[in-house]
Amino acid sequence: MDLKNKKVLLMGLGLLGGGVATARWLLEQGASLTVTDMKDEGTLKPSLEKLEPYKDKIKYVLGRHEEQDFLENDVIVINPDVSASNKFVELARQAGKQIENELTLFYAFSPSKNIVAVTGTRGKTTTANWAYEILKSKFPNTVLLGNDPEKTFLGELKNIKEDSLVVIELPSYQLEIVDGENFKPHVALITNIYQDHLNRHKTMEEYALVKANIFAGQIEDDILILNKENEWTKFFLDKNPKSQILFTSENYIFTDAEKEDFKMKWGEHNLQNLLAASLVAFSMGVTPLDIKKSISNLPQIKFRQERVYESEKLEIYNDTAATSPDGAIAAIQRFGKEANIVIISGGTDRELDFEVWAETVHKHLKPEQLVLLSGSATEKMKKALGWSDFQEYGSLKECFEKALAISKSTGMKTTIVFSPGAKSFEKFKNEFDRGEQFNALVEDLKRSII
Fold this sequence. Notes:
Blueprint: E1 7-11, H1 18-28, E2 32-37, H2 45-50, E3 58-62, H3 67-72, E4 75-78, H4 87-94, E5 98-100, H5 102-109, E6 115-119, H6 124-135, E7 142-145, E8 165-169, H7 172-175, E9 187-190, H8 198-201, H9 204-212, E10 223-226, H10 233-237, E11 244-247, H11 256-266, H12 268-283, H13 288-294, E12 306-310, E13 314-318, H14 325-335, E14 341-345, H15 355-364, E15 370-373, H16 376-385, E16 391-393, H17 396-410, E17 414-418, H18 431-449
Helix pairs in contact: 6-12, 11-12, 14-15
């Protein structure tokens, strides 16, 4: 792919940095660049300021999209927030335009095609991180992408060598335009499929179909790893993958005793993440002995049931990455066995069902152990729970202060877990912003104690 002197339209600049990085990279390739976004100039000011040195090289169409831009440009690059079914993207597709996103551009320009791709609803970040940590023991030039907002796919291309092994975490939106030709990972892993992103994908089958794109381009020498225990695995098998298939539930690298010890320390969900990560490493030639040696060095993953405070009287965990009911369920199941626990939940809805979440809450918590942050998902949570009264607050600070008050009233060591079970966009930029704001509250607590 050669973008030099090509007319390229970047659809969606955004405010989180990815659009800015993509715009810079496209200019570095010599593209004639137009940037269009439904947000106006005032809203996009922080991003536009970062592109100020390039202002003479970019044509901006802001506050609207113009059909003519999608017909006159050669290549349309869509931002992650832009659905592949967007009417303007469809217009360009029908006109025979080349449709790309960060992932497909990365694959086209990467010097290495030795790629491990990880997707799924739950556990993909931890699994990708742990697979990366284990693989480094055999492949020192291993690179991890996809779970650090500061490290964009295109921005990190400069660090990829021909002998690099690239581990990529992929949310569904990156896979929407993958067609079997524009992305072909050597190892593909789907951790599981649960209800999520239905505001974008509409049905569970559509969501699973997008996830299935991860193995669409694989051939007989490639490897696909699935979770046999997940109900959607049959759906993927019915797509007749060409690759060799391995199942995480048939992972015999660890003894039952080792699995039980790990589960007691990290939780059942993290045992599943370990089994998946170790199977990725094993499929790439890392020995079981070296995999086991790596376990003691596995990092705690930021914002995934991350312990951010511990004292004689209190433990606090930040699980802001639990953006769906299933994520919060995992936290309640792990910590709900403790007598003194306070869960902070609530946020923005994505057309998800909270009935099973409510059943889990009823099983493990009393009403006084649940603090709710107001939001559209919170309304559905309250309805599913059916309680007559709730501890609900409009800000994260108020929720945290209430949780601290509850912990002090017990007179015993208490665990506070911030596990929203919902998206964040009504009150925060994204779940990472939400997590950082929670950590700031914890830092304020530490300072007050000192």
